[in-house]
Write a structure and sequence with these properties.
CATH topology of the largest domain: Aldehyde Dehydrogenase, Chain A, domain 1
Number of domains: 2
Bound molecules: nicotinamide-adenine-dinucleotide
Number of helices: 17
Oligomer: single chain
GO molecular function, one term: aldehyde dehydrogenase (NAD+) activity
Helix content: 40-55%
Strand content: 15-25%
Protein name: Aldehyde dehydrogenase
InterPro entries: Ald_DH/histidinol_DH, Ald_DH_C, Ald_DH_CS_CYS, Ald_DH_CS_GLU, Ald_DH_N, Aldehyde_DH_dom, Aldehyde_DH_NAD(P)
Keywords: NAD, Oxidoreductase
Domain Aldehyde dehydrogenase: 10-451
CATH architecture of the largest domain: 3-Layer(aba) Sandwich
């Protein structure tokens, strides 16, 4: 049966449940038929094809991201293309080692047996992607899934429709539809997909939808990787290199217009250096994005809020903070026609403001002064475990103290966001900020099942089988004594 390739059918017509079912069944059948043929060479050839397609489509990707949220071309290259290309390069280099069965030495109790752990493909996997890094977070996990020998359905975000279309075109051009298919659409399409018995679901998005995904996966007892979000705090200590802190925080916060899961959400700054630090941030914003509103609106380096709904949400956060006594130290200007919000620094923050509760996911940075680091640690621990925690201080013991007292997906010391680009680190959160990990070998393992192969050579384990005669009982008692 010829399978409808949804990329050809057209992005905007939401696929029916029947179409989705038929795509899924085709992937299932093909996965079973191809199972033994996903050799190292085949997987590497798939990755090469994806790399070549990405390179061919570079200008389309840049144009699509610009159309979706005016994302600057250098930022598209750095944060959409490069991470996926790097993921491919890294997987190709290490795949032979990752795929190798791992010998498990026998303990005394199982002497005479031979055992291995072999990573096997999970099977047919679903990747659901968000809009904020629309290409990177759809195709990065695809690299891990293909490296691990799976077939995949990708559901890109409907909020970045141009990039979604480019992803569909790239996939349709690169892979047979029963190996990788793209199904475009919104939450309703996503839920139709979630009802199917996938072998693994890799979801990137909000904690609220993460719960929907996990609940749906439970119905099929399907494993999940959840890459979620939340508020990632930043702590600037009394001995911070202020200029370095400002440079890194401005980049981490305002790149992609603050729409980054690991962006510094808010900053705690020691009161001794707060005035200097605020000025350094202001100066850095001026240096990077322009000192005047006109400059900030016209620079090609500043992207936009993805849509009117999010623009309104963030504007409301600013209004709510102002009405409760916050001071706009820098920025605060908005332009509704462009979904533009200037890089904004907010001081005089209090706990009754909405900015202290929700993930901000926009270009607004609340700055909270502190005197006692333990009260900051208490506040961090009163909230869900963050995806990232950033610490700026030249005194190593300052960071050590915070690291030991808190839990988070990652800790960045004197940097922000860069850990995403490290191919040998697991990328993921804890509890509310995520379950499981992406990137490199960790991504490969997320899409693999550790299958055990144990073979009897000349073990004596049968001596312990029933009937439990006196002699067998003595042997079991001895085993418990010696091995227990
Ligand atoms: N940990 C990470 O790697 C990472 C990366 C990027 C974004 N995020 C998080 O993602 C969020 C922003 O992205 P978003 O707004 O696209 O997230 P989202 O959860 O609203 O949507 C993500 C995906 O889920 C689908 N979806 C939405 N509602 C659904 C529902 N009710 N049922 C089933 N599917 C549904 C969407 O169509 C989209 O494809 C932020 O919380 C951010 O921190 C996390």
């Amino acid at each position: 049966m010829k399978i409808a390739n949804l990329a050809e059918v057209g992005a905007t017509n939401a696929p029916t449940a029947d179409t989705i079912d038929s795509v899924f069944s085709a992937l299932q059948r093909a996965q079973l038929a191809r199972r033994a043929s996903f050799t190292l060479d085949v997987r590497i050839a798939q990755l090469n094809k994806l790399r070549d397609s990405l390179k061919r489509h570079e200008s389309n990707i840049i144009a699509a991201c610009a159309a979706d949220f005016k994302k600057p071309a250098p930022e598209v290259k750095l944060t959409e293309l490069l991470p996926v290309l790097q993921e491919i390069r890294h997987a190709k280099k290490h795949l032979r080692k990752w795929m190798r069965p791992k010998w498990a030495p026998a303990s005394i109790g199982v002497l005479g047996t031979k055992s291995h752990v072999r990573p096997e493909p999970k099977g047919v996997c679903l990747i659901i992607a968000p809009w904020n890094y629309p290409l990177n977070l759809a195709l990065g996990p695809l690299v891990s899934a293909l490296a691990a020998g799976n077939s995949v359905i990708i559901k890109p975000s409907e909020m970045t429709p141009h990039t979604s279309k480019v992803i569909a075109n790239i996939v349709a051009e690169t892979f047979p539809p029963d190996l990788v298919s793209v199904i475009e659409g919104d939450a309703a399409v996503s839920q139709k997909l979630l009802a199917l018995p996938f072998d693994h679901i890799f979801f990137t998005g909000s904690p609220a939808v993460g719960k929907v995904v996990m609940e749906a996966a439970a119905k099929n007892l399907c494993s999940v990787t959840l890459e979620l979000g939340g508020k990632s705090p930043t702590v600037v200590g009394p001995n911070a290199n202020i200029k370095k802190a400002a440079r890194n925080i401005v980049w981490g916060k305002f790149a992609n217009n603050g729409q980054t899961c690991i962006a510094p959400d808010h900053v705690f700054v020691h009161s001794n250096i707060a005035a200097q630090f605020n000025q350094a941030l202001q100066k850095e914003i001026g240096r990077v994005y322009g000192k005047t509103l006109e400059a900030q609106k016209s620079t090609a380096d500043y992207c936009r809020i993805v849509n009117r709904r999010h623009f309104q949400r963030i504007s409301n956060l600013i209004d709510d903070a102002k009405s409760k006594g916050a001071k706009i130290f820098e920025g605060g200007a908005i332009d509704t026609d462009q979904n533009f919000i200037a890089p904004t620094l907010i001081t005089n923050v209090s706990n009754d403001m909405d900015i202290t509760r929700e993930e901000l996911f926009g270009p607004i940075l609340p700055i909270i002064e502190y005197d006692d680091i333990d009260s900051v640690i208490e506040q961090i621990n009163d909230n869900p475990k963050p995806l990232a925690l950033y610490i700026f201080d030249e005194d190593k013991s300052f960071a050590k103290h915070i690291v030991e007292q808190t839990s988070s997906g990652a800790v960045g010391i004197n940097l922000t966001v860069v850990h995403f680009l490290h191919p040998n680190l697991p990328f993921g959160g804890v509890n509310h900020s995520g379950i499981g990990a992406a990137h490199g070998e960790y991504g490969f393992r997320s899409f693999s099942h550790d299958k055990v192969l144990m073979e009897d050579r000349h073990s004596l384990i049968h001596l312990l089988f029933p009937p439990y005669t006196g002699w067998v009982r003595q042997l079991i008692n001895a085993a418990v004594r010696i091995l227990g």
